[in-house]
Amino acid sequence: MDADDEGLKPKFVEWPPKELDSMSVDALSAYRAQLEAELERVRQTIDTKRAYLGSADTFFKKQ
Is the pLDDT of residue 48 over 90? Predict the structure, then answer.
């Protein structure tokens, strides 16, 4: 693999799992809400990128 290829790989940032047993029900509910909000943000970004890719594919197929 070329050194330039390293920059093209998607970077995955792994969240360390939290110790859930020590969290209260309220804290767990808040944590869950944060995770759900982050998942929605990820879904929206994926949808946006797919739309861009679809537009690019359509543009280049017409050429």
Answer: yes
